[in-house]
Structures are given as structure tokens and as C-alpha cells.
Amino acid sequence: MSEQKQIDREDGVSVSAATENIESGFGVCSWLLIILSVMLIIITLPFSIWTCIKTVKEYERSIVFRLGRILRGGVRGPGLFFILPCTDNFITVDMRTITFDIPLQEVLTKDSVTVSVEGVVYYRVKNATLAVTNINNADAATRLLAQTILRNVLGTKSLAELLSDREQIALSMELSLDETTESWGIKVERVEIKDVKLPQQLQKAMATEAEAAREARAKRPGCERAWEGSNRFHLGREGDSPLTRDAVSKEFDGAPPEQTFRRVDNQAVLAEPREEGPEVGQVITAYGEMNASRALREASMVIAESPAALQLRYLQTLNSIAAEKNSTIVFPLPMEMFPSFMRRSAEPNSYS
């Protein structure tokens, strides 16, 4: 008995305090029934002894009720304890740590992203008396409360916080859950987020973004070797006036060429636009438009010399459109085909 009282004191709630308002004095009828029960045990000895002695395991505690009231002293166990078979009954509580999974919950985050989250909770009964008298089903109540707190806490977090701060979110859930279950005699030991499932479209978008970031990082070492092997490059197409390394650096507002340019087909191309002002981006945009205009002019000259090239371009366009699986395809026809159709429509009907 003294050992059990010490355990209750360590948990912060003593048995006497828990039963102070529950137990009251028995009336005359109650004492009469108790005396009759004791007499019955004495008369039926030694057979009645097997119904009076109960055993409680090391990890269990039993709360004894006599005529519906908790006996003074609270819980019994571990070991043997004595009851009156006609007036007493008892409830045994498991004091070991219990684990349960939080079912998959659909949660709307702070930035309006729907995610599916699973978790796990570890708890144990700290005070058996409170777990029996203050709540009907402590286990079911704890499970439902964990689901509610999970949705409430994650609803205040963004997707980035959910993916990066799982430990902090789990700690916040643990504190909220433990604060509520303390009056039930339950101690929440740990809460963990098992899995976060994102929508398929969001997963694909994040994978594409990560792949693009990896490709950008892979291209950066080439920027540092931009000027290796030659000291002169052309801005634009071959035949333009060449610019030296110093001239290019001066042209782009003193940007370090070894960090800014990369070599592509004998051209100096700005690989990482600097953040100091928009003039660098404007210069590169101007060179790009100039090169694009020249390429379009050459393409028009080739098509003018060879009309079959335009037909091949039509076929290539059809192939690209068919790959997109569109329900409606608008296909342009060359004007040269319309006169032949009009001549045929103007001819008299041979069957008339």
C-alpha cells in the first residue's frame, strides 16, 4: 500500500485527494449488508476464500468499489488483495504505455493545400482512479481527441512548415493533448507524424521544380570555365565584331566574366543575370532579339527558295499537334490549293 501511495505522489495526484469527494460514510443498511457478507464468508469457509482473494499483476492496478463507492485507499496492487464477494466489485486498469495510430486525416493547410497526414500517439494511465471515475472510455476519448488536435494544429501551418518542421508540430500536438488528458489521469508521452501525402499534381510540380534546380546547379561549374581556351568571343553570330574579355566585362557593367558568362557555340552568353539593376538583362534581351530576327530572316529565305520546305513544316506541325491529344485540330492550308478547288466546283455536273 505504501508503495502505491508513493507512485501516486510521483504522478502528482494522490489517491486520497482523488477519492476525497467520492467516498462518504456508509449508512445503516450498508453496514448491515457488509456484516451479512462477512458472516456468509465465515460460514462457507474454506470455499469462500477463493472468491475473496484477487491477484493484480505488476503492470496493473485495481480500483475496488464497495456498494458503489470507492474504498478509502484507492487502488490495489500489485499482488493480492481482499474483497467481499457480495458487496465489492473492482475494475482493473493497465498501466503500461499504449500506442495507437491516428487514421489518415484530410487536412487543409494555411496556404489552402489539401494533404493527407498520419500520426502515432504514445500514452499511459498515470492515475487509475481518475481514468475510471472521470471518463467513460479513456482510450476512445484519447483517440478522438488526437484526431481533432491533429487537424487543428496542421490547419495553422503552411505546406512548407509541415514538410520542414515535423518535430515542432509533433511537440505542439503533444502539449495540447497532454493538457486535456491530464484530468483523465492520462499522460501523453510522445506524438509523431508518420507520413504526409501530397496530391499527385503537387508531387509532379515539386519534382519538376527540384529537377530544374538540379540542372541549374549542374550548369554552374561551366560558368567558371567560360573563358578557358580562348580570350576572344563573339556576341551574336559569326561575322560580328569580336569583343575581348575586358570589353565584355565593361559592356555588362563590370560583371566578373568568369562568374557571369558561359561559352555556347562561340558565343558569350550570360548564365546568371546579376541583381544589380535591370541594365544587364536589357542588354542580353536585345542581343537575343537581334539573333532571333536574323534566324527568322534566313528561315524565310530558305522557304522562299524551296516551297517544299513549307509542306514539310506543315507535316511537322501536325505531328506536334497530334502528340497533345487535342479534340479539335485547326490545320492551315496553303492558298495555292484553293484555285484548283474553285475550278472543280465551277465545272458543270457531268451527271446532269
Automatic annotation (TrEMBL):
This is Band 7 domain-containing protein. Residues 215-227 have a biased composition (Basic and acidic residues). It holds the Pfam family Band_7. Belongs to the band 7/mec-2 family. The keyword Signal does not apply. The lineage of its organism: Eukaryota, Metazoa, Chordata, Craniata, Vertebrata. It comes from the Eukaryota. The chain crosses the membrane at residues 31-53. Residues 215-258 are annotated as: Disordered. Residues 51-210 form the Band domain. Gene3D superfamilies: 6.10.250.2090, Band 7 domain. InterPro entries: Band-7_stomatin-like, Band_7, Band_7/SPFH_dom_sf, Band_7/stomatin-like_CS, Stomatin_HflK_fam. It is found in: Membrane. Keywords: Membrane, Transmembrane, Transmembrane helix.
